[in-house]
């Protein structure tokens, strides 16, 4: 009888351990799903680039805006953190700067950059810049 009791208690402990392990797996899966939902709801990182009258490029993107020109559009996209640029428009668009008054309106190309704006600050002095805050006319 004592052996049966010990066996029964061992089975109960094992069942309890399995139940707790399953609850932990479910909690981890729920947390992962919540993080994926939150990531999906974050806005895409964008970059807006334009060429000056000398054929050199400026760009405003997730990690910075350029204040000097660069020779190629690819170079300037990389500098502003747009690692996987995908043009969002078939023709150049004109946007109005709301942050740098001397820029006024610029005509250029709008890109999706292959990543998302992170949670937290997304102003002009971060490495997590949401350029939608700095340009009027972005509808993406």
Q: How many helices?
A: 2
Characterize the biggest β-sheet.
Answer: 6 strands, antiparallel
How many domains is the backbone divided into?
Answer: 2
Q: Estimate the strand proportion.
A: 15-25%
* Shape estimate: rod-shaped
Low-confidence stretches: none
* Alpha carbon gyration radius: 26 Å
Helix content: 25-40%
Output the structural class.
Answer: alpha+beta
Distance between the termini: 73 Å
Q: Strand-and-helix sequence, N→C? A: HEEHEEEE
Any overview of this molecule?
The chain is rod-shaped, with a radius of gyration of 26 Å. It has 2 domains: 1-41; 43-136, no CATH class. The chain is α+β, with helices and mostly antiparallel strands and 140 residues long. Helix content is 34%, strand content 24%. The protein is built from 2 helices and 6 strands, in the order αββαββββ. Strands 1, 2, 3, 4, 5 and 6 form a 6-stranded antiparallel beta sheet that branches.
């Amino acid at each position: 009888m004592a052996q049966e009791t010990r066996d029964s208690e061992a089975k109960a402990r094992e069942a309890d351990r399995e139940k707790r392990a399953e609850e932990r797996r479910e909690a981890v899966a729920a947390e992962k799903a919540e993080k994926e939902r939150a990531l999906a709801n974050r806005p895409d990182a964008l970059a807006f680039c334009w060429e000056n009258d000398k054929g050199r490029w400026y760009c405003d993107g997730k990690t910075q805006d350029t204040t000097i020109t660069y020779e190629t559009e690819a170079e300037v996209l990389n500098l502003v953190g747009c690692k996987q640029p995908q043009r969002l428009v078939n023709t150049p668009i004109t946007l109005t700067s709301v942050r740098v008054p001397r820029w006024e309106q610029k005509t250029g190309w709008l890109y999706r950059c292959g990543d998302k704006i992170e949670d937290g600050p997304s102003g002009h002095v971060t490495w997590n810049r949401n350029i939608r805050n700095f340009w009027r006319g972005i509808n993406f």
